[in-house]
UniProtKB/TrEMBL annotation:
Keyword tags: Cytoplasmic vesicle, Golgi apparatus, Membrane, Protein transport, Transport
Entry membrane topology: Peripheral membrane protein
Pfam families in alphabetical order: Adaptin_N, Alpha_adaptinC2
Gene Ontology BP terms: Golgi to vacuole transport; intracellular protein transport
Cited InterPro entries: Adaptor_Complx_Large_Subunit (IPR050840), AP1_complex_gsu (IPR017107), ARM-like (IPR011989), ARM-type_fold (IPR016024), Clathrin/coatomer_adapt-like_N (IPR002553), Clathrin_a/b/g-adaptin_app_Ig (IPR008152), Clathrin_app_Ig-like_sf (IPR013041), GAE_dom (IPR008153)
Main location: membrane
Origin species: Musa acuminata subsp. malaccensis (Wild banana)
The organism's place on the tree of life at top rank: Eukaryota
Keyword Transport carried by entry: yes
Protein name (Swiss-Prot/TrEMBL): AP-1 complex subunit gamma
Length: 863
């Protein structure tokens, strides 16, 4: 027989394919076999039709196209015999899916087979329908499936229940038809039917609130009875796994109980006793028992359980943490993270065990345990937990130091009650993991030191000591360099010595040695070397005996290959040689850095998702910020990067009378610092290391229009002209600093109902006044989550509208999250006609589609 004829047996074709040594040989075999099958199909060969479909299924699993055999599956299904139908339905499930149009042709055959007298044929039809059922097929065949749920055969009941799950997922509107049959399945004795019935009830609860209420009312007692019976049942070989009777049914029942008890105190109270029984009697020495205990804990934490039952659940998780299986410990840590929000005190009892997990050899467990420890920190345990974490930082793996240092820095900043403790802990972190500390953490430390005059001497001495032993930690070196540059005289003269300090002697030459070492040791780190040059320039004024040595060190770098270092060295050398008269004022100590401004900037950058909410509030009602070191200050303007060494040409925002310098070498250049008049925007600091000058005040003060006055856009002050003198050649020049006048518009509440709120904030470029960027923020005010959320808008003909994709289509309930979307609106008749917009929001609540619409007429003038 020809090995590639339609009569070839399936096993022979598989042998031929497996014997191929290359992919090309395999493709050749498959191509010949497919050609033979096509010939058989065109000849309407009925004798080998089932064999050809079996071959096509194997070819399909190898990844080759088999669409030409789909109609053959339908012909086999229409046959009368069971063997043909079995191959036909198997091919149907494998070769087709619900998106195929040809599937509509099989609906009639399925309906006939669902009413067949042979239970095995009925089972085949139910399996096929449960795997590839589309919405149209579900509506057509739901009555037959519903009828089969009430048959006596447990095998048919089980298959019908699984098929019903597929139907209600495709068509949630049919859920009410299956409520009564699903409830009747819970009275069965056969475990297979029970598991399928419980799963059907679970899916009914997911798609319909009415179904949840019905099952809560009619099935809670039966579920408790089933769970009690299987928990107390004697040994049953048919269902026993590791000494536990049917753990799969246990878990399904617990999940359904969690859904029924969630948010319902009466149902929760009724199932509390059985949950306590399962939690206390189930053995934890086998994996099956641990699975039941975990599901029981999740159910207890998900319902309105009593406090004693929650403590029992958390104690079970504590035992899981001592298990040798990493998977069990990981899921326990995950569940404890959820439990912290419910009962933090009960979780605190297992703090020691959780800390041991931070030191585990498994990276996943370490990371999850560290996140849990961070959630456990409060004002009372912050110091001991920080000490434990810092002690572990010294011996932890290099791969874990980044996460560990980040969490320690957050804990120290958030829970420090006094500046000295905060500074001490940060110094320890910088000494042990300075290479892993993020820039914003050590920037915040510099701001804190600047705001603690009593601790500045202590800080610079502590850093000097730490540098001697941990000079390889980059962040530590940078903070040390900055502090020596600012407070070097305190280091040399032992100013502000605390009682806890040991006496030490540091000469001016020793301080310069540290900076010189940083310049030579960190040859690849431009930022650190740039900071060292700045610090040396400052010390040249404060330590006159070392001025010549500092000049020599700076001169060496005039030929540096790094342009940044070369430029700074040339400029600083010129300052030392030719501008002694201004050097002392140029390098004087920086004023106290505004801590509130820096914290405000960090907060705004880390919580960008609530910017729209904040911008909708008037600036006059801004609340006082709480800082980690117990210092409360009113909010101020955001802080630019204190140590930005590569942005000398960056434009500077307008400053206020209490603004600090935005660069390490910047100084205020107002006419009369004591006059109480704030300098104009862009002229209050040195704009470049090459230029100094004194601003010339305008005779007429620029007018600032508040956004609270008739929604008029706010404009910045008119920039003033400054006299600029080049430090290198001493030639004066006149120049003016460009000032941008970007209009600012107030945010509005565009739409608000009892269930939904929409807020608009606006931005516009001055050179394109007719183009507006609208940032929309959607907030769900109801207690139900919205899915498939879609925002639609319509505008007049003279307006063009472009909608960017939304950030999500899921809107959490009760304002626990937002969706953001950007709209670009182009008003072709700007200044003549005001904007107007109609909006429509479509979303689903519990798979029921809802919509809301409205008109927006309260856009600020000028858009």
């Amino acid at each position: 027989m020809n090995p590639f004829s339609s009569g070839t047996r399936l096993r022979d074709m598989i042998r031929a394919i497996r014997a191929c040594k290359t992919a090309a040989e395999e493709r050749a075999v498959v191509r010949k076999e497919c050609a033979a099958i096509r010939s058989a199909i065109s000849e309407n060969d009925q004798d080998y039709r089932h064999r050809n479909i079996a071959k096509l299924m194997f070819i399909h699993m190898l990844g080759y196209p088999t669409h030409f055999g789909q109609m053959e599956c339908l012909k086999l299904i229409a046959a009368s015999g069971f063997p043909e139908k079995r191959i036909g339905y198997l091919g149907l499930m494998l070769l087709l899916d619900e998106r195929q149009e040809v599937l509509m042709l099989v609906t009639n055959s399925l309906k006939q087979d669902l009413n067949h007298s042979n239970q095995y044929i009925v089972g085949l039809a139910l399996c096929a329908l449960g795997n590839i059922c589309s919405a149209e097929m579900a509506r057509d065949l739901a009555p037959e499936v519903e009828r089969l749920l009430l048959t006596r055969d447990p095998n048919i009941k089980k298959k019908a229940a699984l098929c019903s799950i597929r139907i209600i997922r495709k068509v949630p509107d049919l859920a009410e038809n299956f409520l009564s049959p699903a409830a009747s399945l819970l009275k069965e004795k056969h475990h297979g039917v029970l598991i399928a019935g419980v799963q059907l009830c679970t899916d009914l609860c997911k798609v319909s609130v009415d179904a949840s209420n019905y099952l809560r009312k009619n099935c809670t007692e039966g579920l408790v009875r089933i769970l009690r019976d299987i928990s107390n049942s004697p040994y049953a070989p048919e269902y026993d796994i590791a000494g536990i009777t049917d753990p799969f049914l246990h878990i399904r029942l617990l999940r359904l109980m969690r859904m029924l008890g969630q948010g319902d105190s009466d149902t929760s109270e009724y199932i509390n006793d059985i949950l306590a029984q399962v939690a206390s009697k189930t053995e934890s020495n086998k994996n099956a028992g641990n699975a039941i205990l975990y599901e029981c804990v999740e159910t207890i934490m998900g319902i309105e359980a009593t406090s004693g039952l929650r403590v029992l659940a958390i104690n079970i998780l504590g035992r899981f943490l001592s298990n040798r299986d990493n998977n069990i410990r990981y899921v326990a840590l995950n569940m404890l993270m959820k439990a912290v929000a419910v009962d933090s005190q009960a979780v605190q009892r297992h703090r020691t065990t959780i800390l041991e997990c931070v030191k585990d050899s498994d990276a996943s467990i370490r990371k999850r345990a560290l996140e849990l420890v961070f959630l456990l920190v409060n004002d009372t345990n912050a110091k001991p937990l920080t000490k434990e974490l810092i002690d572990y930082l010294e011996v932890s793996d290099q791969d874990f130091k980044g996460d560990l240092t980040a969490k320690i820095c957050l804990i120290v900043e958030k829970f420090s009650q006094e500046k000295k403790w905060y500074i001490d802990q940060m110094f320890k972190v910088l000494s042990l993991g300075g290479n892993f500390v993020k820039d914003d953490a050590w920037h915040a430390l510099i701001v804190a030191i600047s705001n603690a005059p009593d601790l500045q001497g202590y800080s610079v001495r502590s850093l000097y000591k730490a540098f001697q032993t941990s000079s390889e930690q980059v962040s530590l070196v940078r903070v040390t360099v900055w502090c020596i540059g600012e407070y070097g005289e305190m280091l040399v003269n032992n100013v502000g010595v605390l009682e806890v300090e040991e006496p030490m002697t540091v000469t001016e030459s020793d301080a310069v040695d540290v900076l010189e070492a940083c310049l030579t040791r960190y040859s690849s780190d431009i930022a650190t070397r740039s900071m060292s040059l700045i610090a040396l320039l400052k010390l040249s004024s404060r330590f006159p005996p070392t001025s010549e040595r500092i000049k020599e060190i700076i001169t060496v770098h005039k030929g540096s290959v790094a342009l940044e270092l070369q430029q700074r060295a040339i400029e600083f050398n010129s300052i030392i040689q030719r501008h002694q008269n201004i050097k002392s004022s140029l390098v004087e100590r920086m004023p106290v850095l505004d801590e509130s401004a820096y914290i405000g900037k960090r907060t705004s950058s880390s919580q960008a998702n609530i910017v729209a909410d904040k911008s909708s509030q008037p600036s006059s009602t801004a609340t006082t910020l709480k800082f980690p070191n117990g210092v409360a200050k009113p909010p101020a303007a955001p802080l630019v990067d204190l140590l930005d060494l590569s942005a000398d040409d960056t434009s500077v925002p307008s400053s206020t009378s209490n603004d600090f310098l935005h660069d390490l070498l910047g100084i205020g250049l107002t006419n009369s610092p004591s006059s109480g008049i704030a300098p104009s925007g862009g002229t209050d600091i040195l704009m470049d290391l090459l230029s100094i000058g004194t601003p010339v005040q305008n005779d007429t003060a620029s007018k600032v229009v508040s956004s609270n006055q008739g929604f008029a856009p706010t404009t910045k002050p008119v920039p003033t002209t400054i006299q600029v003198m080049d430090l290198l050649d001493g030639l004066p020049s006149n120049g003016s600093l460009p000032g941008s006048q970007t209009p600012v518009y107030p945010s509005i509440t565009a739409f608000e109902s009892s269930t939904l709120k929409i807020m608009f904030s606006f931005t516009k470029q001055p050179e394109k006044p007719h183009v507006n960027k609208i940032h929309a923020t959607f907030v769900n005010l109801s207690s139900d989550a919205y899915t498939d959320f879609v925002f639609q808008a319509a505008v007049p003909k003279f307006v063009q509208l472009h909608l960017d994709p939304a950030s999500s289509n899921q809107l959490p309930a009760s304002g626990n999250g937002t969706i953001t979307q950007t709209l670009t609106v182009t008003n072709s008749q700007h200044g003549q006609k005001a904007l107007a917009m109609r909006v429509r929001m479509v979303y689903k609540v519990n798979n029921q589609e809802k919509s809301e619409q409205g008109q927006i007429d309260n856009f600020p003038p000028g858009l």
